[in-house]
Amino acid sequence: MTALADMEELLASISNKEMVDYMREALTCYGAGAYRGCIVMSYLALFDDLKLKLAELAKINGPAKAIWLEVEKRSGNQEVFESFMADQLQAADLITKAEHKQLELIRDIRNRAAHPSGVHAKAEEARYVYRVVIDDFLSRQLLKTTHAADAVLARLTKDNLFPGNDFDDHILIAKAELAEVNPAAHAYLIAKLVAAQRRGDGEERPPDDREPFGGRRRGHPGLDPPQADRGPVS
Question: Does the predicted model carry a pTM greater than 0.70?
């Protein structure tokens, strides 16, 4: 019962609630001892979720759009697309190498479980697939934490992101934009904004030689350290 309770708790972390039905059915299969069914349902949820996230990313990312169009074509023709999608996502740096290896392992386990090879799925395999699918994929809102930040950066290039001159309105808009950005990507977003500002100012000096907001570092009476008297120059 402990394993079932732990697996039940994982359902709450799924970001797309449409995937909860898949995983609840996978959990039901596991509880009934139908480990093959648990693996297959988890696999279906995983790649359906990846495809949905890819579709969202395709709206702002060129490589993602190219992959999504081909995936949709293969899916529409009833062709196998999962392996292609995983390989292309990794090649385009939309998932990490570690995530790609996890997808390969899950696909291998699913293939062994789904085909009549005489190999029976084990409980620990079903638990592993179920947990990894939720923890490492379904619980995330985007493919990578930086993609939401990249979307904000793309919208900042448009003139209509901050309509009007009301500062309070700007604060509300900024908060709404940041709400979708993973806190782990905040440093990435700030670095990109600073780099863009420097490019706009035509400045390439290192940050420790600049004052805030692009001002040149200047001497300031009473604040700069005293300079040693080097004596007359011969």
Answer: no
Separation between Cα atoms, residue 48 and residue 58, nearest integer Å: 15
pLDDT, one tens digit per residue, over 44-72 is 999 999 999 999 888 877 889 999 999 99
User: Closest Cα to residue 50, out of 29, 30, 78, 72?
Assistant: 72
Cβ atoms of 96 and 150 within 8 Å: the answer is no
- Cβ density class 163-192: b for 16+ within 10 Å, e for less: eeeeeeeeeeeeeebeeebbeebeebbeeb
Q: What is the mean pLDDT of residues 30-37?
A: 96
Contacts of residue 145, defined as CB under 8 A and 6 or more positions apart, other chains included, come to 182, 184, 185, 188
Q: Is the pLDDT of residue 231 over 90?
A: no
Per-residue pLDDT tens digits for 89-108: 999 988 889 999 999 999 99
Please name which of 92, 99, 84 lies closest in space to residue 64, comparing C-alpha atoms: 92
Half-sphere exposure of 24 (CA within 13 A, CB side): 8
* Residue the block writes with tokens 């709404």: 176
CB contact burial 67-85 (16+ within 10 A = b; e otherwise): bbeebeeeeeeeeebbeeb
Mean pLDDT calculated for residue range 142-154: 73
CA distance 51 to 89: 11
| Residue of 153, 162, 136, 182 whose CA lies nearest to 61 | 153
